Amino acid sequence: MGQASLATFYVVFAIFTIYLNLESIGTWDANAIYRTISKAISENPFSLENLNTTRFLDEVQDPEQVYDWMRDAFRPVLFGEQEDMSVHASWQNMSSWTHNKTPPTIGSFNRILLVRFTFKRWAVQPTIGQFQPSTPYRLAGGVSRLDAFSQNAAEDKTTLCVPGTGSSEEAQEAGCFQWETGSSFDRVGGFTSFFDPMWGSDAYDALLQRMKQAGLFDMRMGTCTVDMIVYNANVEMFLQYVQSFAFDFSGHGESSNDARSFNLNVFNTSVTKYLIFYIIRVTCVVMLIIFLLLEFRRIWDLGFFAHFRQQGAITDMVSITVSLGVFLSYWIIEQMQPFRSFNFADLQNSSTMAATYVSLCDVARSLQIQGLFIAANLLVVSLRTVSLVSGLHSNLGLILKVIHVSGPNFIAFLALFGMLQIGFVLTSFFAFGPGYSEMSDIGLCIYKSFSMLSGDMIFDKITRVDPILGPIYFFSFYILFFLVLINIFVTLLMSGYDIVDYELHKKGQNEVEKNPIILIFEELKADVVGNILKYGSTLMKYIRVCVDPIVVSIKACCCISAPPALTFFSSRALTRGTAQAERQSTQVQQQGAQDPDQLRQNLIAFTTMVAFMAVWICLMTLQGRGSDSYFTGQTTLSESALEVMFYKNDTIRNFDQIHSFSDVKTWADTAIVGLYSNPTCAESTTSGSMWNASPSCANSNNSQQLLNRIGGWNVGFLNTTFVRLTIQPACFVATESKWASGLPTLRKTPDVSCWNSVCTDVFSSESCRSADGDVVNAQSLSNAINSSLLPETFSFGYDAPGTGLGPFKMLGGLSLSLGVTKEQCEDVLALLDASRWFTENSASIVFDWLTYNGNMDLFTHSIVAFSLLETGVMRRSAESRTFPMNVDTGGGYFDLQTLVLVLFGLYVALLLYHIIDMIRHVAGELAASRRRQQPLRKFFVDYWSEGWNVIETLSLLISLATVISFLVFVLNGFRTDYRFSTDDTKKYVVPNEQVKLYNMQQVVDPSRNQEDDWYFFRQFEIIQGTYGVFLEFAALNSLFIALKTVKIVNRFKIVSKFSNTLANGKTRNLYFIIVINLQMAGFALAMTVVFGTMVQEFSSPLSTMGALLYWVCGSSDLRPLMRVSPTLAVLFFVAFMVVFRFISTNMFLATQLNTFAALVGESDIKAARLEANAKMGMKQVRYHDKKELQAELELERQSEDQVTVKRVLRPGLALQANVQPGDVVSKVNKQKVEWQNTLDEEEYEHIERALVPEPDGTITLMFQDPPRKTFLAKLMQSCSCMTKRRKVKPGRKSQHEAYAKPPAMRPTVHNFWRFHGAVAEVEKDSQIYRPPRGGGGEWQ
């Protein structure tokens, strides 16, 4: 099997492995459940006894406060969402739930199965000495702290009992706590007690009281671990949440948490999803066996030690071994008891409760350990993928080759770097650790030292700790590491890069590398198809041998002629196609002055492009009005709704602390109701319109309308609705019988942000019920609330997606007007709360309102939305969309609409000019292609292979799209006609066709005014969407206009060297990006598995990639990772920074420097050659085509083998190169021409017409000054003029014989090109006399 085939199959294996492991672990769902639980636990306050103050989880300082936290903060977590079954009476129709209480949940869907409390206590010994009276005992064991995750020798194991407990066995069991290991947390021992939340809050209070009376919360508490297992039926996941408190010898307390997830259904092949997992697992094992057999074959062929001395062999074997170990661990875990037989009833049975809970915890712990092996496996798999892919092309393997070449230097440097780093780490730890938390640990000091190399400034923080040593440490660190050592490292890297690049260039002169994609297809064709044909033909041969006697026998019996030979495959040779060499397009500029025509064209193009960009900038600055839109959005949304604080459970909260629909209701009672706090009455009088605070303002009055103001100037202008509320109901079904006792209902609503999606289509495919058990369909939803309690102008009902005007964006659901007064808003919110829509019965809730600012002449659509996901996570969204409605005229201080339209017209005119110019350019390229007799398909392939052509085409297309979207916005009929007024005769009237289209009520119907408002909401959504599309195209257009400007500027020589540097290095940079992304993907996958459950930024591979890119850019926060595992966090961070920050990113720098040096070297060579030619009277002119040559020069033949310039017809390239009449044409297209063998007799008079251009149509002429003649030579020439010149009709030679191509010259640009390379070599080369093969000679 070839390298490309092996790499391809391994990439397939890597994809299968990644998918299987990530989906089996379910990191994203586990992290979502963890976030739901941790926020619920951490944001509940607790009060301190005898102190009028409250604290939170991270502020627990002593064991007494642990008790206070359990009493006040943890108790609402256990019972806060539990309700009486009378509210859910309809459950009996869909579930066998028999309890009188609903399951205790967190985030609506995460059912708490069981809670375990584990305490560890310090062992003590009597105090000796004068302090014995005040401190009768001290801690024993010689350790500074107890560890909740391991056994400790300094633990007290004496049984604790509540005072007054009897001696009977029953009394001892009820009132005493014994130290045990079997049922304790992680089986590491402790005083353990279990609690089922279904026992009720009274039982919980009694348990806490017994633990306190027994002394578990006294000052001898070493650790207290509270862990519980929750179950989410929506994602079929269990999660063990661990909250631990530890108190050291000084009395200092620390809290930490952990989370371990598992899925007991993952090996159930009766489910399609998990059957696919099983098939993929078997496929991966088969592929691993094949890879292992290939490795054994190589070991057999090369020998054991010779094989492992090859590059990548050890990585291959480690990867295969670790992968086999991971798949073996799946089989071992599958044999654990909970995967084979688990029943929720065992957790509720007091006799089996502990054993069942511990077995589930063993599964969680085993899978957590397996996650470390999976992370290592994914990292090694990605490393082997990089190794195999790097072998497909030299540029793909460049990074690994540079590391290999520079390896000894890197090792020596890193040894020096490490020793110095250790010194600075210890210095920072001892000097700043006591006063700076982020240097209070050795691991944190290592992290901080590397983050300082990435630009993390900590000068102020360490200076506050030590004003003298702080500045010294800071400046010495940056001088030594950032300015000296890092640059030494870059020098070592570039030295290795130059060596590898030189070797690759020598290799490239002898062989042409194939494109990796072409190579993969060729090897797959040879290895796969070839083997199929090979073994297939062998199989057919045996079939023929077996079938031929039967055929002959049938013929003999039935007198049938013999059939033709059984041939199923035509024998054809499998030949590998040769791939074209990778084409590197490098623009070669003239070294002399540019062609005046070309220069003039460039200046015209540059001027028009600058005008194009200037017009566009002015147009979008005036039309976009960014600052106006921003401040309007800040006023109408952020300041009025998002920054509003609200109270819940006697705690002040903000918008980011909304985690349930119950919180949404509390927030709406403050923020949404607060939007109605500044009403005013707009009244039309004979003297004009005016605002007043009339309490009797009525919208039914033809001259009055009640307006709600935000920030004084932003008014709500609709008649019946200021704020609209849209609800998409959730769909629930009964849980499968096996899991029904865990959670009786299962949500079927799509797990997306339903506020901006259609989530009610599920009603047509499922027999949906609400979370309360009520039937959910269109009919029941129309009666979901008591409409009789609403004003007669209000209408309520359910609208299917795309049918009713009421819901937000017509996505379907329930739509309600919150009215135009504060009282109406409060009443509607209370009615919805009483109808239980601020519960899990809703999938999403959207509040949106429209306002107009007359000062800025801008409309604003403000949106606040909430979506409840199936993991219990509440996803909050807020948007403010500001847009103008007036184009030609308007109100407010903005009166430049006419200028905007003029600029738009200029922009369209310039755009048409650029389109015509591009069409003319394409036509010219097409004509040149036809002259070269190229097919049309090749022309388009060649044209689109040029990056600048792609950019220019995309730029024009996006510009056209921008113009079209703006015209669609301008020509919108509603935008043109809409007016609002207090006078009904002047208000905008909904067109009759729209009334019929949306089936609106008659004008006399009381609810018609609300339907009109719903129509206005919809039209404003359409206009805002159109304007938003215009702004998106405008943003893209701005980028591509800038790129197109760069293309025009690139035509000037002073800029072209930089763009050519990017162009020449683009292929190698592209390969770097591929390899670096593969490497980064390995880190991302491993870190997702290790940290994803507890760190949101690392909960999915994509988000982890984003976080790692922040690390590369110098922005990192390691504290969340340190809470999971300090050791792994520091190891990953240091390894990542060394590989990517120091090596991979600097490879781009090395590439650009090397490419720029090569370009400058070639430029110096060319300049030196021109200078040498000038000394010898040599001049070179390059014409774009033969027509340009004929228009500028007339040539004549002076002798049989000499052609000279007869005259210069016009100023142009020839005069720029100082070509004069009489100059000798020495070379054509860089080749010496034997004129007597090239020209026909009829071509003597017009030699310039007979010259053969290059394949691209260009002609390059080399001229030489005429030889200086003595007086005798001139006299002989004058005498010869008196005789008739003899014409000779020479024989013609082939083009290959007439032109002799000189060998290619490569500039010496490695490291010292300016001193030892280009100029000196060209000077020597120009003076070398080289005799041609046919005799004679010439100076070059």
Task: Please characterize this protein's 3D structure.
The chain has 1340 residues and is an alpha+beta fold. The protein folds into seven domains: 156 residues; 236 residues, no CATH class; 214 residues, no CATH class; 67 residues; 169 residues; 234 residues, no CATH class; 106 residues, no CATH class. Helices cover 50% and strands 14% of the residues. The chain contains 40 helices and 35 strands. The strands form ten sheets. Strands 16, 17, 18, 19, 20, 23, 24, 25, 26 and 27 form a ten-stranded antiparallel beta sheet that branches. Strands 3, 4, 9, 10, 11, 12 and 13 form a seven-stranded antiparallel beta sheet that branches. Strand 16 and strand 17 form a beta hairpin. Helix 11 packs antiparallel against helix 29 and helix 16 packs across helix 32. It is globular and about 145 Å long. The C terminus is likely disordered. It is found in: Membrane. This is Polycystin-2 (Curly up) (Cup) (Polycystic kidney disease 2 protein homolog) (Transient receptor potential cation channel subfamily P member 2). Keywords: Glycoprotein, Membrane, Receptor, Transmembrane, Transmembrane helix. Its main location: membrane. It is a multi-pass membrane protein.
